[in-house]
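Worked example 2:
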Amino acid sequence: MDDDTAAGRGPGELGGDDLILSVIVGSRAYGLHTPASDTDRRGVFVAPTETFWRLDKPPTHRDGPLAEQFSWEVERFCALALEANPTVLETLWSPLAEVVTPTGRRLLDLRGAFLSRRAHATFARYADAQFRRLDPAAPRWKQAMHMIRLLLSGIHLVEHGEPLVDMSAHRRRLLDVREGRLSWEQLSEWRAALMSTFERAAPHSVLPAAADRAAVEEFLVEVRRAGL
């Protein structure tokens, strides 16, 4: 990707010249941060095309080098996005981008192609799994907050065609959950109300029935050709 230049901080500053996209996620992107909050980063890198010709394939993901930083190889990232993985979609819609190369910009411009109505089932399944892991006798309130946040994001995705990342409008009540200021009964009632809204919204979703896999594959082929 010889002609790629980053906007904002350079790829090398964030852990490799193969980065095409790096964004801030977590509490800072959600508008839920406090002075003690970490800075969580997610990114996308491109492995050299020739490395796929070997028996030992390049990694599909990597940690670091910065604390709380995680990146996916572009092909793995696209596969997860087509599955409506909430964390991956959140990366595409984060309002806090630190590196966006020309290839990264093409990926962001393509983000609508990853969406489909399967997102409803995926977001609901992830939120339900988080809820089932909670112990009513001693809830992990931070996990409970993220369960509610995931439902709010999924409802917005189904109704408006993009996940809701910035939770500033819900900040006060979400922080009340994280700090344990809501009872288990209040949390359960809020969850039940959101699940009901989510289910009612699903049949009227603005999302397409299927993702545009052809457009995604075309992008990947272009990336691999450029990497030769």
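The first strand starts at residue 19 and ends at 25. The radius of gyration is 19 Å.
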